[in-house]
Amino acid sequence: MKLLIAFLALVALLVDQRKQGNPLDNLPATIEVLTHFGERADISPDNQRVAFMSKSFGDAMVIDLKTRIIQCLTCNVPGAAFLRVMHLVTGDYILIGPDHFENIHISRPRDNELWFLSKERGSKPVKLGQKMSEGAAISKKSLKIAFSQTSAQAPDLAPEASRLIVADVDFSGGPPQLVHQKTVFASKDRSCVLEAQDFYDNDTKMTFTCYEPNDQASVMGIDLESGKVTNFSKAPGTYNEPEGIFPDGLYTTVEADRQSETLGGRRGSGNIDIWKLKLDGTGKDFVRLTHFNDYVDGKASNPVVSTDGHFMAFQAARTTDPAGVGYGILIFWFSPPH
Hints:
It is a single chain. This protein has 3 helices and 24 strands. By secondary structure, the protein is mainly beta. The protein has one domain (about 35-335): Neuraminidase (6 Propeller). The strands form 6 sheets. A 4-stranded antiparallel beta sheet has the order 1-24-23-22, with no helix packed on it.
Protein backbone atom coordinates (compact mmCIF):
# COMPACT_ATOMS: atom_id res chain seq x y z
CA MET A 1 0.00 0.00 0.00
CA LYS A 2 2.81 2.42 0.84
CA LEU A 3 4.43 1.77 -2.53
CA LEU A 4 1.10 2.43 -4.28
CA ILE A 5 0.65 5.72 -2.46
CA ALA A 6 4.18 6.77 -3.35
CA PHE A 7 3.59 5.83 -6.98
CA LEU A 8 0.35 7.81 -7.17
CA ALA A 9 2.08 10.81 -5.63
CA LEU A 10 4.82 10.60 -8.26
CA VAL A 11 2.23 10.41 -11.05
CA ALA A 12 0.51 13.51 -9.66
CA LEU A 13 3.76 15.44 -9.86
CA LEU A 14 4.41 14.35 -13.43
CA VAL A 15 0.94 15.39 -14.64
CA ASP A 16 0.68 19.11 -15.44
CA GLN A 17 -1.73 20.61 -12.91
CA ARG A 18 -1.78 24.17 -14.30
CA LYS A 19 -5.18 25.80 -14.64
CA GLN A 20 -6.88 27.59 -17.49
CA GLY A 21 -7.23 31.37 -17.44
CA ASN A 22 -5.24 34.57 -17.68
CA PRO A 23 -2.92 35.44 -14.77
CA LEU A 24 -3.54 39.15 -15.49
CA ASP A 25 -7.17 38.65 -14.48
CA ASN A 26 -6.14 37.41 -11.04
CA LEU A 27 -3.39 39.76 -9.87
CA PRO A 28 -2.78 40.27 -6.14
CA ALA A 29 -3.03 43.79 -4.70
CA THR A 30 0.77 44.06 -4.71
CA ILE A 31 1.00 43.85 -8.52
CA GLU A 32 -0.19 46.44 -11.06
CA VAL A 33 -0.03 46.57 -14.84
CA LEU A 34 2.23 49.39 -16.04
CA THR A 35 1.99 48.89 -19.81
CA HIS A 36 -0.02 46.60 -22.05
CA PHE A 37 2.87 45.96 -24.42
CA GLY A 38 6.62 45.63 -24.21
CA GLU A 39 9.35 43.54 -22.67
CA ARG A 40 12.72 43.56 -20.84
CA ALA A 41 12.17 46.36 -18.32
CA ASP A 42 14.99 48.35 -16.70
CA ILE A 43 14.50 50.78 -13.81
CA SER A 44 16.32 54.14 -13.78
CA PRO A 45 18.83 54.68 -10.94
CA ASP A 46 16.53 57.33 -9.38
CA ASN A 47 13.56 54.92 -9.64
CA GLN A 48 11.44 57.49 -11.50
CA ARG A 49 11.27 55.77 -14.88
CA VAL A 50 11.17 52.30 -16.44
CA ALA A 51 12.80 51.73 -19.82
CA PHE A 52 11.64 48.78 -21.90
CA MET A 53 11.59 47.39 -25.41
CA SER A 54 8.49 47.70 -27.59
CA LYS A 55 9.22 44.20 -28.89
CA SER A 56 12.17 41.98 -29.71
CA PHE A 57 14.25 43.68 -32.43
CA GLY A 58 12.24 46.87 -31.99
CA ASP A 59 12.33 50.33 -30.43
CA ALA A 60 13.47 51.34 -26.95
CA MET A 61 10.84 53.09 -24.84
CA VAL A 62 10.71 54.74 -21.41
CA ILE A 63 7.73 55.42 -19.15
CA ASP A 64 7.54 57.99 -16.36
CA LEU A 65 6.16 56.28 -13.25
CA LYS A 66 4.34 59.40 -12.02
CA THR A 67 2.75 60.67 -15.21
CA ARG A 68 2.66 57.30 -17.02
CA ILE A 69 3.73 59.13 -20.20
CA ILE A 70 5.59 56.84 -22.62
CA GLN A 71 8.42 58.22 -24.77
CA CYS A 72 10.06 56.41 -27.67
CA LEU A 73 13.84 56.66 -27.46
CA THR A 74 14.75 55.24 -30.87
CA CYS A 75 11.86 56.10 -33.18
CA ASN A 76 14.24 58.43 -35.01
CA VAL A 77 16.29 55.39 -36.04
CA PRO A 78 14.98 53.83 -39.27
CA GLY A 79 14.58 50.08 -38.93
CA ALA A 80 15.54 50.02 -35.24
CA ALA A 81 16.18 46.43 -34.21
CA PHE A 82 17.25 46.53 -30.58
CA LEU A 83 16.76 43.80 -27.99
CA ARG A 84 17.53 45.57 -24.71
CA VAL A 85 17.72 49.04 -23.19
CA MET A 86 19.43 49.68 -19.83
CA HIS A 87 20.11 52.80 -17.78
CA LEU A 88 23.57 54.10 -17.00
CA VAL A 89 24.11 55.90 -13.69
CA THR A 90 24.22 59.18 -15.67
CA GLY A 91 20.68 58.71 -16.94
CA ASP A 92 21.98 57.84 -20.41
CA TYR A 93 21.32 54.44 -21.91
CA ILE A 94 23.05 51.31 -23.13
CA LEU A 95 21.31 49.52 -25.98
CA ILE A 96 21.93 45.96 -27.13
CA GLY A 97 21.16 44.78 -30.62
CA PRO A 98 22.47 44.09 -34.11
CA ASP A 99 23.40 46.74 -36.66
CA HIS A 100 20.57 45.40 -38.79
CA PHE A 101 18.13 42.54 -38.47
CA GLU A 102 18.53 39.44 -40.63
CA ASN A 103 16.60 36.83 -38.70
CA ILE A 104 16.33 35.72 -35.09
CA HIS A 105 18.61 32.71 -35.62
CA ILE A 106 21.49 34.86 -36.91
CA SER A 107 21.03 38.34 -35.45
CA ARG A 108 20.50 37.32 -31.82
CA PRO A 109 23.34 34.85 -31.20
CA ARG A 110 25.93 36.33 -33.57
CA ASP A 111 25.40 40.03 -34.26
CA ASN A 112 24.51 41.61 -30.92
CA GLU A 113 26.61 44.61 -29.97
CA LEU A 114 26.65 47.43 -27.44
CA TRP A 115 25.43 50.95 -28.23
CA PHE A 116 25.47 54.22 -26.25
CA LEU A 117 22.41 56.48 -26.34
CA SER A 118 22.52 59.93 -24.76
CA LYS A 119 19.57 60.98 -22.61
CA GLU A 120 19.33 64.23 -24.59
CA ARG A 121 16.13 64.24 -26.63
CA GLY A 122 16.68 63.46 -30.31
CA SER A 123 20.00 61.68 -29.77
CA LYS A 124 20.86 58.70 -31.91
CA PRO A 125 22.61 55.51 -30.77
CA VAL A 126 26.39 55.33 -31.15
CA LYS A 127 28.21 52.01 -31.53
CA LEU A 128 30.67 51.11 -28.80
CA GLY A 129 32.47 48.74 -31.16
CA GLN A 130 31.85 45.68 -29.02
CA LYS A 131 30.14 42.42 -30.02
CA MET A 132 28.67 40.51 -27.10
CA SER A 133 26.30 37.71 -26.13
CA GLU A 134 22.83 38.08 -24.59
CA GLY A 135 22.50 40.69 -21.78
CA ALA A 136 24.83 42.92 -19.79
CA ALA A 137 25.39 43.96 -16.19
CA ILE A 138 25.15 47.75 -15.83
CA SER A 139 26.17 49.40 -12.57
CA LYS A 140 23.72 51.85 -10.99
CA LYS A 141 26.60 53.41 -9.03
CA SER A 142 29.38 53.86 -11.60
CA LEU A 143 30.08 53.58 -15.32
CA LYS A 144 31.07 49.93 -14.95
CA ILE A 145 29.62 47.39 -17.35
CA ALA A 146 30.03 43.64 -17.80
CA PHE A 147 29.10 41.39 -20.70
CA SER A 148 29.80 37.91 -22.03
CA GLN A 149 31.22 36.61 -25.28
CA THR A 150 31.12 33.28 -27.04
CA SER A 151 33.09 32.21 -30.10
CA ALA A 152 30.28 33.69 -32.22
CA GLN A 153 31.45 37.17 -31.17
CA ALA A 154 35.10 36.44 -30.38
CA PRO A 155 37.05 34.35 -32.93
CA ASP A 156 39.92 33.92 -30.47
CA LEU A 157 37.70 31.79 -28.23
CA ALA A 158 37.46 28.03 -28.66
CA PRO A 159 34.17 26.93 -30.28
CA GLU A 160 32.57 25.82 -27.00
CA ALA A 161 34.03 28.51 -24.72
CA SER A 162 32.60 31.70 -23.22
CA ARG A 163 33.93 34.48 -21.01
CA LEU A 164 32.87 37.39 -18.81
CA ILE A 165 34.41 40.81 -19.43
CA VAL A 166 34.23 43.89 -17.17
CA ALA A 167 34.87 47.37 -18.60
CA ASP A 168 34.11 51.06 -18.05
CA VAL A 169 32.07 53.31 -20.31
CA ASP A 170 34.02 56.49 -21.11
CA PHE A 171 32.43 59.39 -22.99
CA SER A 172 34.44 62.17 -21.39
CA GLY A 173 36.83 62.78 -24.28
CA GLY A 174 34.80 62.55 -27.47
CA PRO A 175 32.90 59.56 -28.87
CA PRO A 176 31.88 57.06 -26.17
CA GLN A 177 34.05 53.99 -25.84
CA LEU A 178 34.75 51.03 -23.57
CA VAL A 179 37.99 51.21 -21.60
CA HIS A 180 39.82 49.06 -19.03
CA GLN A 181 38.44 45.81 -20.44
CA LYS A 182 39.31 42.75 -18.36
CA THR A 183 38.28 39.12 -18.58
CA VAL A 184 37.22 38.10 -15.06
CA PHE A 185 36.00 34.55 -15.68
CA ALA A 186 35.98 32.01 -18.50
CA SER A 187 34.35 28.67 -19.25
CA LYS A 188 36.09 26.25 -21.60
CA ASP A 189 33.03 24.35 -22.81
CA ARG A 190 29.23 24.27 -22.98
CA SER A 191 28.85 22.71 -19.56
CA CYS A 192 28.61 26.33 -18.41
CA VAL A 193 27.76 29.09 -20.91
CA LEU A 194 28.11 32.48 -19.24
CA GLU A 195 25.92 35.61 -19.10
CA ALA A 196 26.58 38.69 -16.94
CA GLN A 197 23.68 39.81 -14.74
CA ASP A 198 24.10 42.33 -11.88
CA PHE A 199 26.80 44.15 -9.94
CA TYR A 200 26.43 44.40 -6.17
CA ASP A 201 28.35 45.22 -2.99
CA ASN A 202 29.60 48.52 -4.44
CA ASP A 203 30.50 46.88 -7.74
CA THR A 204 32.98 44.51 -6.10
CA LYS A 205 30.85 41.46 -6.90
CA MET A 206 28.63 40.32 -9.74
CA THR A 207 25.97 37.70 -10.33
CA PHE A 208 25.98 35.74 -13.55
CA THR A 209 24.17 32.83 -15.13
CA CYS A 210 25.76 29.50 -15.89
CA TYR A 211 23.63 27.95 -18.64
CA GLU A 212 23.96 24.19 -18.52
CA PRO A 213 23.03 21.31 -20.85
CA ASN A 214 19.46 19.99 -20.99
CA ASP A 215 17.88 23.44 -20.46
CA GLN A 216 19.24 23.91 -16.96
CA ALA A 217 20.94 26.88 -15.31
CA SER A 218 22.54 28.00 -12.04
CA VAL A 219 22.77 31.29 -10.16
CA MET A 220 26.44 32.15 -9.86
CA GLY A 221 28.41 34.96 -8.26
CA ILE A 222 31.97 36.20 -8.59
CA ASP A 223 34.03 38.33 -6.25
CA LEU A 224 35.73 40.68 -8.71
CA GLU A 225 38.60 41.36 -6.32
CA SER A 226 39.52 37.80 -5.35
CA GLY A 227 38.10 35.96 -8.37
CA LYS A 228 36.22 33.52 -6.13
CA VAL A 229 33.15 32.02 -7.79
CA THR A 230 30.12 30.71 -5.84
CA ASN A 231 27.16 28.64 -6.96
CA PHE A 232 24.29 30.29 -5.06
CA SER A 233 21.37 28.15 -6.26
CA LYS A 234 22.96 24.73 -5.67
CA ALA A 235 20.10 22.95 -7.44
CA PRO A 236 21.48 20.67 -10.16
CA GLY A 237 18.93 19.45 -12.65
CA THR A 238 16.80 22.62 -12.45
CA TYR A 239 16.60 26.04 -14.10
CA ASN A 240 17.65 29.08 -12.06
CA GLU A 241 18.59 32.35 -13.82
CA PRO A 242 19.36 35.50 -11.77
CA GLU A 243 17.83 38.66 -13.23
CA GLY A 244 17.60 41.48 -10.67
CA ILE A 245 19.64 42.28 -7.56
CA PHE A 246 18.25 43.76 -4.34
CA PRO A 247 20.07 46.92 -3.19
CA ASP A 248 21.43 45.24 -0.05
CA GLY A 249 23.19 42.64 -2.22
CA LEU A 250 21.81 39.89 0.00
CA TYR A 251 19.11 38.68 -2.37
CA THR A 252 18.47 38.34 -6.09
CA THR A 253 15.35 37.66 -8.09
CA VAL A 254 15.52 34.47 -10.12
CA GLU A 255 13.65 33.03 -13.08
CA ALA A 256 13.14 29.50 -11.84
CA ASP A 257 11.19 26.32 -12.61
CA ARG A 258 10.92 25.26 -8.97
CA GLN A 259 7.10 25.45 -8.97
CA SER A 260 7.09 22.52 -11.41
CA GLU A 261 7.94 20.30 -8.45
CA THR A 262 4.28 20.63 -7.43
CA LEU A 263 2.60 21.78 -10.67
CA GLY A 264 4.19 19.08 -12.81
CA GLY A 265 4.87 19.54 -16.48
CA ARG A 266 8.14 20.11 -18.26
CA ARG A 267 11.07 21.61 -16.37
CA GLY A 268 13.41 24.22 -17.85
CA SER A 269 13.43 27.79 -19.15
CA GLY A 270 9.85 27.59 -20.45
CA ASN A 271 7.91 26.95 -17.27
CA ILE A 272 9.37 29.69 -15.07
CA ASP A 273 8.16 32.14 -12.47
CA ILE A 274 9.97 34.72 -10.39
CA TRP A 275 11.54 33.70 -7.08
CA LYS A 276 13.69 35.50 -4.51
CA LEU A 277 16.95 33.81 -3.51
CA LYS A 278 19.17 34.68 -0.56
CA LEU A 279 22.80 34.87 -1.64
CA ASP A 280 24.15 33.03 1.39
CA GLY A 281 25.58 30.12 -0.58
CA THR A 282 23.22 27.48 0.79
CA GLY A 283 20.71 27.53 -2.06
CA LYS A 284 17.94 26.82 0.44
CA ASP A 285 16.29 30.23 0.89
CA PHE A 286 14.01 30.48 -2.16
CA VAL A 287 10.72 32.42 -1.87
CA ARG A 288 8.21 32.49 -4.72
CA LEU A 289 7.10 35.99 -5.79
CA THR A 290 4.84 35.48 -8.82
CA HIS A 291 2.29 32.82 -9.75
CA PHE A 292 1.85 33.33 -13.50
CA ASN A 293 3.07 29.80 -14.18
CA ASP A 294 0.10 28.41 -12.24
CA TYR A 295 -1.76 28.98 -15.53
CA VAL A 296 -1.40 27.04 -18.77
CA ASP A 297 1.12 28.85 -21.03
CA GLY A 298 1.68 31.59 -18.44
CA LYS A 299 4.97 32.79 -17.00
CA ALA A 300 6.52 35.89 -15.44
CA SER A 301 10.05 36.81 -16.44
CA ASN A 302 12.86 39.36 -16.73
CA PRO A 303 12.56 40.99 -13.28
CA VAL A 304 14.59 44.01 -12.17
CA VAL A 305 14.60 45.58 -8.69
CA SER A 306 14.61 49.30 -7.89
CA THR A 307 17.68 50.78 -6.21
CA ASP A 308 15.59 51.63 -3.12
CA GLY A 309 14.20 48.09 -2.92
CA HIS A 310 10.58 49.26 -2.92
CA PHE A 311 9.46 47.59 -6.13
CA MET A 312 10.25 45.17 -8.93
CA ALA A 313 9.42 45.55 -12.63
CA PHE A 314 8.85 42.43 -14.71
CA GLN A 315 6.96 41.21 -17.75
CA ALA A 316 4.02 39.00 -18.55
CA ALA A 317 5.12 36.27 -20.94
CA ARG A 318 4.07 32.99 -22.50
CA THR A 319 5.77 29.63 -22.21
CA THR A 320 5.34 29.05 -25.95
CA ASP A 321 7.46 32.06 -26.98
CA PRO A 322 11.25 32.50 -27.16
CA ALA A 323 13.01 33.83 -24.05
CA GLY A 324 12.62 37.58 -23.61
CA VAL A 325 9.36 38.00 -25.51
CA GLY A 326 6.86 39.86 -23.35
CA TYR A 327 3.32 41.22 -23.40
CA GLY A 328 3.45 44.15 -21.02
CA ILE A 329 5.38 45.48 -18.05
CA LEU A 330 4.13 45.08 -14.48
CA ILE A 331 5.16 46.49 -11.10
CA PHE A 332 5.42 44.33 -7.96
CA TRP A 333 5.32 46.63 -4.91
CA PHE A 334 7.36 45.29 -1.98
CA SER A 335 6.17 48.34 -0.02
CA PRO A 336 3.24 50.71 -0.74
CA PRO A 337 3.97 53.29 -3.48
CA HIS A 338 4.74 56.79 -2.28
